[in-house]
Specification:
The complex is a heterotetramer, with 2 copies of chain A (about 325 residues), 1 copy of chain B (about 325 residues) and 1 copy of chain C (about 525 residues). Chain A has helices at about 20-45, 45-50, 50-75, 85-100, 110-130, 135-155, 165-175, 180-200, 200-210, 215-220, 225-250, 260-270, 280-300, 305-325; strands at about 160, 175, 180, 250. Chain A has about 325 residues and is mostly helical. Chain A has one domain: Orthogonal Bundle (ABC transporter involved in vitamin B12 uptake, BtuC), CATH 1.10.3470. Classes of the chains: A mainly alpha (about 325), B alpha/beta (about 325), C alpha/beta (about 525). The structure holds adenosine-5'-triphosphate (2 copies), beta-D-ribopyranose and magnesium ion (MG) (2 copies).
Chain lengths: ~325, ~325, ~525, ~325
């Protein structure tokens, strides 16, 4: 989707360890640290406290989980615009179950599983349409984004369904060694995602399919089926994020997850995953998500008007990407 | 009946006002009403459409034509154009942006189709036959006055505000009323964040707000639906050193006020039934009838709804009009 | 525009003083991150000559000509044209100086028509509006002179065969008023007839004083068309001013490789009568492309498919491999019939394919070599989906060593390998996998002489170890020299089959032509 | 003695005219006609009247103009997420000028030109960042989308600025041979876009750059500069659309154009322009825009529940693409 303008020959820098994946991450870390420095300078204690760190992490956790799934999708050469909507649909479906009387005696894990199942199902439908229907991912998932939102509205009657399932809320709101369960969930998904991406055949296939689908097919990889799974995975993470959202806000509503997709994609790409596929990084994604969360936090601490925040945010995104690119490998391309 | 009455109706459960046993509700000639509103991207707006549809359903002589809910004024304009082409009998319009829809509403009026303007006001008086408004400035004043009453004697008290969609004029009206009322008792707004009327937006904005302000005395939150998220953030942060005033008046919030199980002490009503009122008025206008208890002829040009403060003392009175956000 | 047909053109001015170089490149150095592609190359080109550039894969030939074309900036060095030092900061500058290039990687735009591609970058226009009629007229004219009136200027280039695209590239180079035309392996995708046609064009050019820099791995071509040779090795000029016609082959190979390589086909031990049939193709057809293709390959046998470009040989391989859905017929491996249209079924049954387009069909270019080698096998190296990277690397390293793939590191991106080494990596993929049937489509395209003989020996060794091999090549001597049994394919039909020793190049060409006429 | 390297004669006859650009358009026209048939069946007179046709065209005109610019961007291998925001910014800037007292004696064309200039400037900034900064288009234009919205809010103080410039309003609202000026503007932009795309070197180069940037560079095209122009063009169409929006609504506000980008991209892609670049069609884009506008219209006529409309829209988008693909050339790929 993006024109890779050929790097001007002059830009070929000396190679070093900086030019590997590590180098790409260094640029990101630098951006993150710069942001933190700004936070400390402008916010002092209020920024640097442990509480605030937890606030940032909690803030990052929901989009973070979505971003892990998105990293697989984008690496496989696709895109998923439906994650926000599907998240919303999952919260509505799960909360409908929880607020229906007949569900009184169901264990809360059933509610959780419903959320995950709804997300996964939506993802698999995306996958079917893209892999077997050969509809371009942007359009297929855009359609799902619109349709899932409508379905969520129909199911909820456009109402906000507040969940008061104690077992569930106790669980999601708990702390564990001083860290909120929501943050742990993000950590678990990120770590699992990292292993899946870097240590399993699934991850390897994802990179291969995104790098060269035709070559992968001729090497005997079932490309279509793999894409199906990748979108299913993204749906699953949307379901998980939905459950987290439900825990965080106690509310199932069709407006949950509204406009998350662009932020998630931005975080993934800022993190260093190539939008054209074939290269992805879970670590980069996590840092990308943290950058966005920290940005919001620093802005609020500084009491910037929303409008000014937006202008600043636009500028910072571009600058962050430019910094990252300075550090990133010139060597991979010419 | 409905919100314009002084007495809250008895009926429980449905947010849609009950058809009162008055002459006005007797079936008459068929009325085709075109209805267009912004996308249900937050609970209040969802309740708006829902109660409009429910109310229309209660009349056998009303045929409601719902246009796709949209935040695109371009689309909304074309919907009104379509209603004009169709020659509907009346149009109930909650414009995404009042100014932007004024022109086409005027065109409808010129074509002899009465337009009932709801919630967000047109920029010209000629664009609507009747207007149903909440009292946004009044909401801010009510909330500010209540907070003044509670905190009046502590001039250095920290007051925070969680606003709705900042770019809407009505948000600015609310904030202005709030500020004006506070300054009357020597207080000001120490921290202000804006969310977007959604639960998630409220949660995010409030988490950050709480982080930025280690000690707070009072919070006013503009909208009870985003309030679900505001409350969740407060509970997540384990904070309770302040009290909170809500806005709009959802059932959920009223239940909290009644149970006294949270920082919520009060909320300010902003009726989610105003589009339902619009439907009723449209029908009356077409049937050329008077409004309920009024003696004067014809449906009034403007109906501004009341923004009372709901507290533990009077919550029972208002439970029935609280919207299930 | 250059008139390629007028052999009778008046001798050009340059021809008066043939010893004054038209172009001279001196001490060209080019560093890439992690690689020194050129390390001081000298080259001088006379007007009206065909100057051949020889060298192994990765020697730096393409890099050198890209420097000349303004596509790369040299780290240091001088370029002198007509006695004046010039700078070529971008491709436009090269074209302005009269240097036009036909690149090794096809450089056409698939979505544009033939005419649009020919005039890309120097469109015939009036006030920004394209003069389409004029462009089409001169494109048609140019294609006619190039001997390809059948290519319509209106045709979308993406729908042309590789050879067709090559012709378009050539037409584009000719459309510039060039004094030097550089051709980087133009014959790689062409068959014998095409190559002769190309030579006719080249002669037309040189007769007008245009200098041609010609790169090819096929020595017999260089003998036929070349005037002088420059040899590159490891980014340095190691041989210059060598007469193309007379320099002994052994000498050239020694200069290129630094050793004495036997440039010959391995001996055929002969397939034992009782060797079992491994691959059995019966009445295979792909509607509109080929039909009634039947043949058997026994264990240890190499079957070659000879024919012209466009005959449908690649499609035969791809179809029996399941990459295309056959419309009729059957394919069986060791007696077991394969599901149609399923590559993974074919792979599971023990078939491997090294496809025609290494880069677009074979490799995941940005992935490391070892992952490309294990791509068809990594699921087996894994346990329960869990990869054992150490085992994976070890398996890849073993193949790299066995194939003498260079450079030997398995962690570099496949993109950075030279053509021959990319081919070896693909072979390595199937060696790791261990297959009973190996399908090779143009295995030596763009591969240097040294690597070629290694590949031949390797394929023969595989066959000797019991693999059934099918080879498609547009170089008839290659098919004849390597295969035990040859099928001649023309227009989607097998027109002849014979043991390799019973048939020669002329016979094959005759058969192909008859098939075409029929 | 040379062989035939082009198999065209056989292939051509087999695939017929359906497999060319015309064939791709046929699928679209079929989808449009199907939709119209549904409109006539369900709406009768209400749908088929001339008034209603004009309503559809007026609705289509603003996004239509954006879509023409977007067709160039996508064909060039890029994407422009900022068009909606930039439209909003243009309306705000122009209306600020118009509502300032000192501007009283300025001719209304100055306001119009301001709108166009603001759009073009934003587009050129996108182009600079993408072409020369080498920031991937998705991210660069996302940043612009956020920043332009923020800037528009700051300039307008988040107020809706009503423009009462008579000369301007008289012009934009007029009819010309029974067709509204807004629609004429769309027609003019579409026709100019068609010529630019199909009959000029600019158009050819746009396709070339999107199809193969490296080959284009080697052929002597200044790829970076060309991309700069392409994004500038998209900014210009956003400016034009902004002026049209201002005429239609009389209101300059930062919420104008909110979330237009996805709809515009969807229309362009449904129209047959390849999201990966290298192939585009202005005619397809126009039909794509009409499909979306007609959809909204048919929904309103049919009084579908609001949520159900969304579900239906999602399904219809996928079906439309599938229909289009059935008709589109199978022969281009294998
Ligand atoms: N963009 C690049 N980045 C890094 N290394 C490169 C790049 N391009 C070429 N090289 C390296 O430079 C060397 C010369 O490559 P080049 O393509 O010029 O060889 P060649 O002689 O044309 O080979 P072949 O016969 O295979 O075409 C090789 O080692 C190659 O790997
Ligand atoms: N995508 C396509 N669309 C139309 N025709 C095609 C396509 N691909 C291949 N063909 C045609 O199919 C025939 C066989 O193609 P191909 O060039 O692969 O044959 P081949 O015998 O393998 O030749 P080569 O020596 O080039 O490998 C040719 O006439 C070619 O033009
Ligand atoms: O959308 C707004 C709603 O959320 C708020 O609570 O009241 C006014 C409405 O316009
Ligand atoms: Mg080369
Ligand atoms: Mg072939």
């Amino acid at each position: 989707m993006s024109t890779q303008v050929d790097a001007s020959p002059a830009a070929e820098s000396r190679s070093s360890w900086l030019s590997g994946p590590a180098g790409r991450t260094v640029g990101l870390v630098v951006a993150l640290v710069l942001l933190a420095v700004v936070g400390v300078i402008t916010g002092g204690e209020r920024f640097a406290s442990l509480d605030n760190v937890m606030t940032i992490l909690r803030l990052a956790s929901v989009t973070g989980v979505l971003a892990i799934g998105m990293t697989f999708v984008i690496t496989a050469g696709g895109i998923d615009l439906s994650v926000g909507s599907v998240l919303g649909l999952a919260t509505v479906w799960a909360s409908t179950l929880a607020t229906q009387t007949m569900a009184e005696d169901l264990h809360w894990t059933v509610m959780v599983l419903t959320g995950l199942a709804v997300g996964t199902a939506a993802g698999l439908i995306n996958g079917l349409i893209i892999a077997y229907g050969k509809v371009v991912a942007f359009i297929a998932t855009l359609a799902m984004m619109i349709a899932a939102r409508g379905l969520a509205e129909m199911i909820s009657g456009r109402q906000t369904q507040v969940v008061q399932v104690d077992g569930f809320l106790d669980f999601v709101r708990a702390d564990f060694i001083g860290v909120p369960v929501l943050v742990w969930m993000f950590v678990v998904v990120a770590v699992a995602g990292w292993f899946l991406f870097n240590r399993t055949t699934f991850g390897r296939r994802t990179v291969a399919v995104g790098g060269n689908a035709e070559a992968s097919r001729l090497a005997g990889i079932k490309v279509q089926r793999h894409l199906l799974y990748v979108y299913g995975l993204s749906g699953l993470t949307a379901g998980i994020a939905g459950v987290m959202m439900l825990g965080r806000t106690t509310a199932g509503t069709s407006t949950n997850g509204l406009y998350y997709e662009l932020e998630v994609i931005a975080a993934v790409v800022v993190g260093g995953t190539l939008l054209i596929g074939g290269r992805g990084t879970i670590v980069g994604t996590v840092i990308g998500v943290l950058i966005f969360a920290m940005l919001t936090n620093v802005f609020t601490i500084n009491n910037l008007s929303i409008s000014a925040q937006n202008v600043a945010k636009g500028v910072i995104i571009v600058v962050a990407v430019l910094i990252q690119q300075r550090f990133a490998a010139r060597s991979t391309s010419t | 009946a409905g919100c314009t009455s002084n007495e809250p109706p008895e009926d429980e459960g449905s947010a849609a006002p009950q058809v009162a046993a008055e002459g006005n509700d007797e079936p008459g000639e068929k009325v085709v009403i075109g209805f267009s509103a912004p996308a249900a991207d937050h609970g209040w707006m969802g309740a708006i459409t829902q109660s409009a549809v429910d109310t229309a359903d209660q009349y056998s002589d009303v045929e409601l034509r719902q246009a796709e809910a949209t935040n695109d004024v371009n689309v909304q304009i074309s919907q009104v154009e379509q209603f004009i082409n169709d020659g509907v009998d009346a149009i109930v319009l909650l414009p995404f942006d009042g100014a932007a829809l004024t022109e086409v509403a005027t065109k409808a009026m010129d074509a002899g189709i009465p337009v009932i303007n709801v919630d967000r006001e047109f920029s010209s008086p000629f664009a609507a036959r009747a207007t149903v408004l909440g009292d946004n400035y009044g909401m801010g004043v009510s909330a500010g006055t209540y907070i003044c009453e509670q905190l009046g004697d502590t001039p250095d008290a920290v007051v925070a505000e969680v606003a709705g969609i900042d770019s809407l004029p009505l948000t600015q009206d609310r904030s202005k009323g709030f500020k004006d009322a506070l300054s009357d008792c020597g207080l000001d707004v120490d921290a202000r964040v804006a969310a977007d009327f959604t639960v998630q937006g409220g949660e995010t904005a409030t988490s950050n707000l709480l982080q930025a302000e280690p000690k707070i005395d009072a919070i006013w939150n503009h909208d009870d639906d985003q309030g679900v998220g505001v409350l969740a953030a407060i509970e997540n942060a384990g904070r309770d050193e302040f009290f909170m005033v809500g806005g709009a008046g959802s059932l959920d919030v009223m239940e909290h006020i009644k149970a006294d199980d949270s920082v919520l002490q009060a909320t300010v009503i902003y009726p989610s039934t105003q589009a339902a009122d619009g439907i009723k008025l449209a029908r009356l206008v077409v049937h050329d009838k008077n409004m309920g208890d009024l003696v004067s002829a014809g449906v009034p040009r403007t109906t501004q709804l009341y923004a009372p403060v709901v507290t533990a003392d009077n919550v029972d009175q208002y439970m029935s009009i609280g919207f299930r956000s | 525009m250059v008139d390629v047909d007028r052999d009778d053109a008046a001798p050009p001015e340059g021809a008066d003083a043939p010893d004054v170089p038209l172009l001279r490149m001196e001490g060209i150095v080019k560093h890439f991150p992690g690689a020194k592609a050129l390390d001081g190359v000298d080259l001088d080109v006379l007007p009206g000559e065909v100057h051949c550039l020889l060298g192994q894969n990765g020697a730096g030939k393409s890099t050198l000509i890209k420097v000349l074309a303004g596509a790369h900036q040299p780290t240091s060095g001088r370029i002198v044209l007509d006695g004046e030092e010039i700078a070529i900061p971008h491709p436009v500058a090269a074209l302005r100086h009269g240097v036009a290039t036909i690149y090794q990687e096809l450089d056409v735009v698939d979505g544009l028509t033939v005419a649009e591609n020919v005039f890309l970058g120097h469109e015939l226009d009036r006030g920004g509006f394209t003069q389409r009629r004029e462009a089409i007229r001169s494109t048609r004219e140019m294609l006619r002179r190039l001997g390809h009136p059948e290519i319509s200027p209106h045709r979308e280039v993406g729908r042309l065969s590789a050879a067709g695209k090559q012709i378009v590239s050539m037409a584009r180079a000719l459309s510039h008023d060039a004094r030097v035309i550089v051709m980087d392996e133009p014959s790689a995708v062409l068959d014998a007839g095409e190559v002769q046609n190309l030579f006719r064009v080249v002669r037309g050019l040189t007769a007008q004083g245009v200098a041609v820099v010609y790169i090819s791995h096929r020595l017999e071509e260089i003998r036929q068309i070349g005037d002088r040779i420059t040899v590159l090795k490891n980014g340095r000029t190691v041989g210059r001013d060598l007469p193309a016609a007379t320099t002994p082959t052994a000498e050239l190979i020694r200069l290129m490789t630094g050793r004495n390589v036997e440039y010959a086909f391995p001996t055929r031990p002969g397939v034992p009568e009782d060797a079992p049939v491994v691959l059995d193709v019966e009445d295979l057809a792909l509607a509109g492309t080929f039909e009634d293709v039947s043949f058997q390959v026994r264990a240890g046998e190499i079957v070659g498919l000879a024919g012209l470009v466009g005959a449908g040989r690649s499609e035969i391989l791809e179809t029996l491999y399941g990459a295309r859905r056959r419309t009729a017929g059957s394919v069986a491996v060791k007696g077991r019939r394969l599901r149609s249209g399923s590559v993974d079924a074919a792979v599971a049954a023990g078939i491997g394919l090294c496809p025609e387009e290494r880069k677009s069909q074979g490799l995941v270019l940005d992935e490391p070599v070892y992952r490309n080698i294990t791509l068809s096998t990594f699921a087996r190296i894994a346990r329960g989906g869990w990869l054992d990277e150490r085992a994976e690397r070890a398996a890849a390293r073993e193949q790299v060593a066995a194939l003498d793939l260079r450079p030997a590191g398995v962690d570099r991106a496949a993109r950075t390998l030279s053509g021959g080494n990319q081919q070896k990596a693909l072979l390595g993929r199937w060696l790791v996998h261990g297959c009973d049937v190996l399908l090779l489509d143009e295995p030596t395209r763009g591969v240097d002489v040294g690597a070629r003989s290694e590949l031949y020996a390797l394929v023969r060794r595989l066959a000797d170890a019991g693999t059934a091999v099918v080879v498609v090549s547009s170089e008839i001597p290659e098919v004849l020299g390597l295969a035990d049994h040859v099928l001649v394919v023309s227009e989607g039909r097998v027109v002849h089959r014979a043991p390799a020793q019973d048939i020669d190049e002329h016979r094959v060409l005759d058969l192909v032509m008859e098939g075409t006429v029929a």
